[in-house]
Design the sequence.
């Protein structure tokens, strides 16, 4: 057998959505792929945690939508979706809530009926709220016994400030103060037409769009809730969180930069990939393969609605923490002062191209990318421009970006673990 020639795409074309704006202001974006006998529709609400005025209200409201409506109990909802083989998913981040339903085309109507109940008529039963809060409180308490969780929360505080909407973390006991009225109030204010858009993908014909429009069109067109105060970030360059008895330290290094709309965002994605974005990255080769300090390390750019940041994360034995930190700083400095070999950069370009093709392989992946583009106010043509930017980046540009944005004095460093052991090892 003869192996087929390797083909690395130099460009990609992503169709723009077919848009329709309803009388109440909700915009529906359609991405028809009629060769698939499935339908997915995602309601996106500007109802993330930055808009809550009481801890855990945003996530609790989103997660409890399916725990009872005017006509369906939580059990009936689960049984109906399971009977039709439909998929229901809720994701909540700092800025948005994403509520997705997926079904076979032939069971779309039955799935939409359940979706309409959840989105338009939730009742948030007291018993379900109490059980949910107790479960989440215990889960959070367990999570916070891990140095990884402590480092993640401390890193957010270091980047933005403890009182900043992107940096705040609340005690698990705050679940004890949640009341049904809190969830109902948050739902009424934020699950509205003005806070919502919908993306439909798969076998999306006119009948599907009309049916989704009937649900989306029933969202109340109420006055928008006031935008919450959004203070500037208050950066702390180093935080150490003591965790007596820990055998590992969790390390976070990074800095606040910019979001996807910035012209250097794609270039900094390449820089992050070189540092720790794949198994052959510089940090992986150094920390894992050469020194044996860690099982894995990750570097990535993170995009939020009003900010973006670079993050490097790993876990190492406590007595190797300072040595691992030194190696991370050394690899960053190498990127700032030395040109990346063209062969290494080509591997990264190909890795990023392949990952982009993987994400776009199917209607639902395309829908996810489309949602992100809509949130950033960008057309789907942005995907092609990003790929071309990645394919054309040069070693000189990588060095320029690293030199400009990764100065040691600008970096935030967070360590969670047995800090005393770390200091003794020094």
Sequence:
């Amino acid at each position: 057998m003869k192996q087929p020639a390797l083909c690395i795409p130099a460009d990609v074309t992503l169709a723009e959505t077919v848009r329709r704006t309803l009388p109440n202001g909700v915009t529906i974006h359609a991405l028809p792929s009629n060769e698939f006998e499935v339908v997915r529709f995602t309601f996106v609400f500007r109802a993330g945690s930055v808009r809550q005025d009481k801890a855990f209200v945003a996530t609790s409201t989103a997660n409890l939508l399916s725990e009872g409506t005017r006509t369906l109990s939580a059990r009936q909802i689960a049984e109906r979706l399971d009977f039709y083989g439909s998929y229901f998913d809720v994701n909540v981040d700092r800025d948005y809530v994403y509520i997705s339903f997926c079904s076979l085309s032939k069971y779309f109507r039955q799935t939409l009926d359940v979706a309409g109940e959840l989105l338009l008529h939730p009742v948030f039963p007291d018993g379900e709220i109490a059980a949910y809060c107790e479960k989440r409180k215990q889960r959070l308490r367990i999570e916070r016994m891990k140095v990884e969780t402590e480092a993640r929360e401390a890193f957010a505080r270091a980047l933005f400030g403890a009182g900043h909407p992107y940096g705040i973390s609340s005690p698990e006991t705050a679940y004890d103060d949640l009341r049904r009225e809190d969830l109902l109030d948050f739902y009424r204010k934020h699950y509205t037409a003005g806070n919502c858009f919908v993306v439909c993908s798969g076998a999306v014909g006119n009948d599907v769009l009309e049916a989704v429009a009937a649900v989306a069109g029933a969202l109340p067109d109420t006055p928008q809730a006031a935008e919450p105060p959004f203070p500037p970030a208050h950066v702390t360059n180093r935080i150490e969180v003591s965790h007596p008895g820990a055998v590992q330290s969790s390390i976070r290094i990074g800095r606040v930069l910019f979001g996807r709309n910035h012209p250097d965002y794609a270039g900094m994605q390449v820089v992050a990939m070189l540092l720790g974005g794949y198994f052959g990255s510089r940090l992986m080769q150094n920390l894992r393969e050469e020194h044996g300090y860690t099982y894995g390390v990750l570097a990535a750019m993170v995009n939020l609605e009003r900010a973006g940041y670079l993050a490097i994360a790993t876990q190492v034995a406590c007595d190797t923490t300072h040595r691992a930190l030194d190696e991370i700083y050394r690899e960053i400095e190498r990127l700032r002062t030395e040109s990346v070999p063209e062969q290494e950069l080509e591997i990264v370009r190909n890795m990023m191209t392949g990952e982009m093709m993987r994400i776009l392989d199917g209607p639902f992946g395309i829908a996810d990318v489309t949602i992100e583009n809509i949130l950033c106010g960008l057309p789907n043509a942005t995907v092609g421009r990003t790929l071309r930017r990645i394919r054309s980046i040069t070693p000189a540009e990588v060095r320029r970006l690293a030199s400009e944005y990764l100065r040691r004095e600008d970096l935030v460093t967070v360590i969670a673990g047995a800090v005393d052991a770390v200091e003794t090892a020094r």
